[in-house]
């Protein structure tokens, strides 16, 4: 892999009771960085809040079940509340990192997702689950800040969260998400 300095960007965690978890962590010293009451579609969705404390960021989610069980509810039912859904790692060159990982056999759940504004870009791609069972997967991202100030490059982007939501929903609907590992192998 290229000489880069990847860093932990955030941990994404699925909860059965997001409000309780947010309140508990805010008492600890975390503060709200980003929140959406609903991301998904008409079948199901999630509520999500990003909390930060210094350089520590948690993206926290709770399922909203409508016509079908939310994928976040599915994670919580399978593995328990407070389960790690994905680990996000910021890389210096996302395109190059993905190319190198694909050459080594790694599989990706999403294409590169792009969100941008006048001051910057956030690009992301998500791997297949690390192990069969789908407990957690990786997000690789690159944050490109073009100008100082509030920008999408410093936070989270609705378009990218929706993109991931739809890719995971499709994989669950097709029935393979909880059966493969990061190389697309089934035991």
Describe this structure in words.
This protein has a single domain, classed as 2,3-Dihydroxybiphenyl 1,2-Dioxygenase, domain 1 (Roll). It is 25% helix and 38% strand. It has 4 helices and 8 strands, in the order βαβββαβαβββα. A hairpin with a 2-residue loop joins strand 3 and strand 4. The protein starts with 6 loop residues before the first strand and ends in a 13-residue tail after the last helix.
List the helices and strands and how they pair.
Elements: E1 7-15, H1 18-28, E2 31-40, E3 44-53, E4 56-65, H2 71-79, E5 83-90, H3 94-103, E6 113-117, E7 120-129, E8 137-145, H4 158-174
Parallel strand pairs: 1-4, 5-8
Antiparallel strand pairs: 1-5, 2-3, 3-4, 6-7, 7-8
Summarize the structure.
The chain is of the alpha+beta class. The chain has four helices and eight strands; from the N terminus they run E-H-E-E-E-H-E-H-E-E-E-H.
């Amino acid at each position: 892999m290229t000489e880069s300095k990847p860093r932990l960007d955030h941990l994404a965690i699925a909860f059965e009771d997001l409000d309780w978890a947010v309140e508990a962590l805010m008492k600890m010293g975390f503060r709200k960085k980003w929140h959406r009451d609903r991301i998904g579609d008409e079948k199901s969705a999630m509520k999500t809040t990003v909390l930060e404390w210094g350089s520590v960021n948690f993206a926290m989610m709770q399922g909203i079940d409508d016509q079908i069980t939310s994928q976040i509810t599915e994670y919580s039912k399978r593995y328990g509340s407070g389960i790690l859904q994905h680990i996000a790692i910021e890389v210096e060159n996302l395109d190059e990192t993905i190319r190198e990982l694909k050459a080594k056999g790694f599989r990706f759940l999403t294409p590169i997702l792009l969100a941008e504004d006048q001051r910057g870009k956030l690009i992301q791609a998500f791997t297949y689950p690390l192990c069969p069972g789908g407990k957690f997967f990786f997000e690789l991202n690159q944050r490109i800040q073009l100008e100082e100030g509030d920008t999408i490059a410093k936070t989270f982007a609705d378009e990218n969260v929706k993109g991931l939501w739809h890719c995971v929903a499709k994989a669950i609907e097709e029935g393979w998400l909880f059966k493969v590992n990061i190389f697309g192998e089934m035991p």
